[in-house]
Amino acid sequence: MSTSTVGREVRELRKIRGYTVRQLADKILVSASLLEKIESGARQASPALVTRLAHALRVGPDRLTGQPYMADAEKEDRVQAVIPDLRRILMTYDSPDDLTVAPRPLPVLAAEMDAVAQMRQDGQYVKYAPLLPGVLEELTCTAMAAPSEGERRRAYWWLARGYRAANSLAHKLGYHDLSATAVDRAHWAADRSGDPFMQVTAAYLRAGGMIRMGAFGSARRLLEGLETEVERMAPEAAMEGVHVALQGAIFLKLAILEARAGRPEAAQHRMAEARAAAGMVGGDTSHYEMSFGPANLRIHEVALLIDGGDTEQALARLREWGAEQDQAEWEVPAGLAGERVSHHHIDVAAARLAEGDRHGALADLVAARAASAPHTRYHPTVHATTSTLVRLHRGSSDAVIDWAKWVGV
User: The domain containing residue 56 runs over which residues?
Assistant: First the structure.
């Protein structure tokens, strides 16, 4: 969906709600002139602004972004074909349909779910989507029929990871109601797994959903409670390893929350806490599928600047870090999850476009696709950036048009 279409949705809903431009701008903490530019399509709304606009207008973000996206991308990928099965499974989570054959042994199911989890982190939704309904059903039946408490807890542990994968799939495709249901199911399975770290992970996912819906106060309370809980879980308050990594991820989520809530000083305070935690873990980690470490910290630093509208400083930061690598700009280190890398390039593409660098914006979009094609194809910022590139296209190259066809804009 183009930024101008987002703008038309905002303008229409603003009038329905009875707000003037000035009144709505005051609600979302921006200038009236910026809101006018968003409504006209002259400026692209950042994810933070989309969240605040949706909350102020009392709709979901998907109403403004136009998700889920269909068109050519849906015809090629057919990833949405699994959504009906996924809805059925999430609805019947505690009373599953009878299987026509016995579920595979738990170690086999665990190995498949491990592969699904890795594909989730790499943003390979199209690959793992067809596997998900079947393995969720088998794990549910295995958990409910387990002969021992230990095996039952292990099955629920893997089932919680499966529901997390379902949440990511639904969220990235734009099925936000289904995403919320998947988070609830992850909570349900995590509680039955007996693993406090998995319970923290499920609550962290819930906080992410709250932030996307603009429920900043509720998300803040939840995340602050998790911060304390992780400290309590550390033996003799000795924070190390998984404890530091999980708490660091919570700090980063709090930083994003505060930025989107229009509290930049609080966001910077949380970033400072995350920076200290990153120094303790050394390299980048992915405990319980939560990426954290020095590289992920830098990705978030850039994202916060871009979300706050300081695109010039964001790009300057990349050049500054690039000098450390003897390069023009900072490059994400190898080995980071594909979805994280893709997200970074998507953010940077939007920043370059805001600074008038159309060629650079397209180059970063292509880099995002190389890191994770499905994540890129279904991301609302990609659709907005692509639509703006098409609007500004002067016909000197077919690259923009070819890209727009691939995205489905």
Answer: 3-65
